[in-house]
Amino acid sequence: MFRGVTHINLDAKGRIALPSRYRERLSGICDGHLVVTVDRDHCLLVYPLPEWEHIEQKLVRLPSLNRSARRLQRLLIGHATECQLDGSGRILLPPPLRDFAGLVKHTVLIGQGNKFELWDEAVWSQRRDEWLVEAADSDELPGDLESLSL
Amino acid sequence: MFRGVTHINLDAKGRIALPSRYRERLSGICDGHLVVTVDRDHCLLVYPLPEWEHIEQKLVRLPSLNRSARRLQRLLIGHATECQLDGSGRILLPPPLRDFAGLVKHTVLIGQGNKFELWDEAVWSQRRDEWLVEAADSDELPGDLESLSL
DNA sequence: CTCTAAGTGGGGAAAAGTGGCAAGAAATGG
DNA sequence: CCATTTCTTGCCACTTTTCCCCACTTAGAG
Asked: What pTM did the predictor assign?
């Protein structure tokens, strides 16, 4: 399970160095093979390759003529790019993905269980503040969430 | 599985150079024989020949008297054009297909599992942004998608 | 305070992408 | 039927990007 927030700087070539505490596990799980794709909230998702392949299988089995299915396939598989950790534990983010998430220099990497999320730092803190406000306002939660005990 | 976005420029003769990371696999699967056809969303579909033949078989078996079936056959089989990778890993797109998808110079190649999609870059990013908004709005997804966990 | 390890930046070699040129084939007109 | 022109296709060279390696800086631990 990946957890926690880490501030990372993109270098001039668009590379990010993953925090060292994850590196050993990533070498073990996927030999440094990662897949980066997009998320609806204009951030990037980073999966270990085997984890991603599992999701991809579910996606490709969806019916091709269904509009929502096509949309999801195009967004997720369409943007999924395989990246390899280099000798210094860094990955190079392809320009299209960098542009999509508006990443310039200051970014944050968020551990999210089986994957990471990568945000522009300013966007992240702004969105987080919005969520806090929204969450405080709305007490009505959908089904399963009602019974959730933290 | 093909995945990921790549920006490619059409040259003055209407050729596109496929990204090198796919070339070896394409040589293996289909010896450089590709089939290009159209999609309902005004982009082009690029299949390795064996993969296309498989799809074509399914299409010709559809009931000929069904209007939507005829329509699909005319669109897909009717526009399917065989293209061969040249020595530099490029394919020449026939002018009718280029026109159909409105390809001028800046294009994007999208990996979609067993095939590629080829879009005009401007059209692609516009459509993608629309999908992101729609996807955020519509939570009603067909069966399997509901339970999809990314 | 020092030593170590991680994060960051940069330089250089190699490879990929892109545009142009030229030779060959096809088509058209004389 | 031959000659000229146009279009096509393969090849080559230049430019840009990518990848690998090394060095410097900063933070943290001993």
From this structure: 0.89
